[in-house]
Design brief:
Length: about 280
């Protein structure tokens, strides 16, 4: 019957039925394929990890991941707005606040590496070999050597600002302090060009080391520990997000396969991320 109550011709009825089946099949295929939007720190992209990691997840799950690489602060702001489905970030205090406010659920540790201070191989500030990051920052300030800051509220930027605070130094406005407002790869490039020093995660530095010629100046301080977490955006706050497929990523990246994949990623033979999930 048509919507008017009159019977449809047999040919039209068959065509209607066929079209309905095709629509249902297309909808089912789309649901099976799936897509999630992931906001993540620039370090996971700049280091090359995502290009290595995500194809394995996509092949396994059938879910496509659209990556939006920004600082961790901006990533969590996107999560608050419901513009993404899942976060992969490295700013633990901000992550805990994000979850406590009800914006995120099922946060899990994923991996870690560490922060390092890098700079010109000539080391004009004479900080090379140091292991105390706070003492190193004081020495950097006293030297007047250029220091390039991310300035983008990323996990790296938040950590850098904390080091200055602990050192009792306000770098803002100082002639040697450059506020870039850029991602890690771009800041490393700037540091090489100026030249100057910067705080970097070890993974992005590893990917940019050959092209920048920057050398490690300060490393090994426990305060430079750099953990990463994965968080699904709370569907109770944002029903329009793809929570089901977001959790597929959360489950996979913390599974034995996902953790082994993270561990196997290397640049020039060096492992850049270390798996850290200790759950089931």
């Amino acid at each position: 019957m048509s919507r008017t109550g009159f019977p449809l011709p047999r040919v039209l009825s068959r065509a209607w039925a066929a079209a309905t089946v095709l629509v249902l099949i297309s909808a089912l295929s789309a649901a099976q394929a799936g897509e999630i939007k992931m906001a993540t720190t620039t370090s996971t992209e700049n280091s090359g990890l995502l290009k290595y990691l995500l194809p394995k997840f996509e092949q396994k799950s059938g879910v496509t991941v659209k990556v939006i690489a920004v600082g961790s602060g901006k990533a969590m702001k996107m999560g608050e707005m419901g513009d993404v489905d899942v976060l992969l970030v490295h700013a633990r205090k901000m992550e805990d606040e994000f979850v406590a406010a009800g914006y995120g659920v099922n946060r899990r540790d994923v991996m870690y590496n560490d922060f390092i201070v890098v700079g010109p191989a000539s080391d004009p500030a004479h900080v090379k070999g140091g292991k105390d990051v706070i003492a190193g920052f004081r020495k950097l300030a006293a030297s007047g050597s250029k220091f390039i800051s991310r300035g983008d509220n990323s996990g790296t930027d938040v950590m850098e600002k904390d080091y200055w605070k602990r050192a009792g130094i306000e770098p803002k406005g100082q002639p040697w302090y450059v506020n870039a407002g850029l991602g890690m790869g771009e800041v490393l490039t700037m540091a090489a060009q100026m030249p100057g020093y910067t705080l970097s995660d070890r993974a992005t530095y590893g990917a940019y080391r050959a092209k920048t010629g920057l050398a490690i100046a300060i490393e090994g301080d426990p305060k430079m520990f750099n953990p990463y977490g994965v968080i699904a955006v709370n569907p109770a706050k944002h029903p329009g997000t793809n929570y089901t497929d977001a959790m597929k990523f959360v489950e996979w990246v913390t599974s034995k396969e996902g953790q082994q994949t993270i561990a196997s990623y290397k640049v020039d033979g060096e492992q850049l991320f270390f798996p850290s999930y200790e759950g089931k």
